[in-house]
Structures are given as C-alpha cells and as structure tokens.
Fold this protein.
Amino acid sequence: MRIIDSHTGGEPTRVILDGGPDLGEGPLALRRQRLAAAHDDVRLATVSKPRGVEALVGALLCKPEDQTCATGVIFFNEAGYLGMCGHATMGLAVSLHHLGAIDLGCHRFETPVGVVTADLTSPHDVSVKNVESYRVRSQVDVETAGFGTFTGDIAWGGNWFFLGASAPTALVPENIPTLLDAARDVRRSLARAGIRGAEGAEIDHVEFFGPAQSPGANARNFVLCPDGTYDRSPCGTGTSAKLACLAADGTLDVGETWVQESILGSRFETHYQPGRRGGILPTITGRAYVTAEGRLLRTPEDPFANGIRTASYSLPAAAH
Ligand code: PYC
C-alpha cells in the first residue's frame, strides 16, 4: 500500500493512497462497515506496531458517492473506526497538496458521518468546516473508581465526547500519565453507568479542560482517544464538541474566535456558524506537515504481517 504520513499539531496521520481493499459502492458508512467486517487486517497493518506509531490515525481514500467531493475517506486508529477526524482531515489536505493531487483552495471530502470542507490557504494551513455538532446533555455526573466524581457535558463533534468541566490535575506534559489514568477511568465509568451519546452510541473520547498557557488562547485541553492514547493536537472533533457546548451555554457567539490549545501547546483557531438542525457548524484551523512517503509491505511468512494486537485500548471491558 502506498502511504503518506503527516502530523497536525503533533498528532500523526497516515493516508493510504492506493493498494487498499475494494469496498465497492454505496454510502461511506456502509463501506466502513465492509472494511471492518472483511478487511480489518488493513487497519491493523497500517496503524498498529510494527509499522505504526502511538496515536496514529489512518485514512483510507475511497471513491466519493458525492461527485462534488475530491475524495471519500474512512478514518481509523488502533482501536477501531472513527466518524470524522479533524487533525487527519488537515493532514489529508496537506498531503494531497504535497503530492500535487489538489491545489490550494476549498475541497470537499466525504466521510462516513457527512461531507466536510478543507480550505487550504497555504501548503500547511487548513481550515476544516466540520459536520454539524451538538450537545445532548449537560452537567452529567460520572463517578469514577479512582478519581472521584467528574461533572461534564456529552456532545457530538463527528465523534462522541465527554467534556469534563475540570481536570484532575494541571494540564502539563509531566502529568500525562495521571491524565490518561483519570480519562480512562472516566471512559470505563461512563460505559459502566450506561451513559451514552445519541441512539445509544458509545462515548469513546474524554476531554478535560484547564486554563490556557499561551497568550491569545482560550483554554488548554487533554483528549483521550479510543485507542487509549492522547491527542497531541487540540483534537478537531473534540474542539467542535467544545464549541457546541459553549454555544449551547451562550458563552461563545456566532463568528467569535475560540483558540484551543493542546496538552503540548499546539493550537487550533476556531469559530462557528449556526447549523440547520439546531447545532453548530464549526470551522477549525490548524497546520499540518508531511513527514514521510512510502509503501507498507506485508510478507506472508511474517507473523506480525497484520500488526500486533495489544490490549491497551480495550478499556471499557476492564474492571476495577
Ligand atoms: O482531530 O478530530 C480529531 C481527532 C480525533 C481523534 C484524534 N484526533
């Protein structure tokens, strides 16, 4: 499989350009199901060890159903499949431009949860107009086994998030191990308590917030991803969910800028417009850089040809 790697605010993306499985025709959500059912080895071979790096998000290009889109794309990580992925959409746009496949300007990408737009304003700068984002519950108490009770909101930004009002410790890189433990505890506790997103969807991302540490930023976050690792970027879908909560609380106006800082200090600049179904349409702007081009090889005799399955991301099943 021919691949191109990039990072967005420190968070890696690997785009599969060709050599992936034929998923046939139909909606991207259906083709994502076919990928999961019949070709899950492709996901693991791409993002897990020995070829992948921690936190890597894979992006499989597919023919779009909507002919106005530059491409269709299915995002995944070591734990499974994502709905949308903000940082990876930026990585995808920058990578396709690097390869000469798209020009600077606006491009539509079809994802399993809807069409998003990437406006490439330089070879590295991208503004993503995400799918409609909304909050379903506010001020939900989650009692954890090891970190007390967290109060937070539940919102959709292309994936499902629990957005904790406060963090268990300061949001600095030295505290990442504690933040991971606490966020995993919240995720397990949400599952155990049966707290879910719309239509019973699992909440597989947990986000903590704290004060910003760089001038001009509004807040810093820490985001636990479904693979049990943390997002090095401020998380495009997580920031979309955050904007939906701020909008629902009436604390951020239409068009007003919100600068979200990640645990590493990388930043997304954002704003929103009203959505059609009562939610908001977020625009998330960040920078991505290409890091490698290559081919992934699978040798039939290699016992790890399809990646190494680790248990680190089977979080909801873990018991205390
Ligand atoms: O940027 O939306 C995002 C994202 C989701 C998981 C990792 N990054």
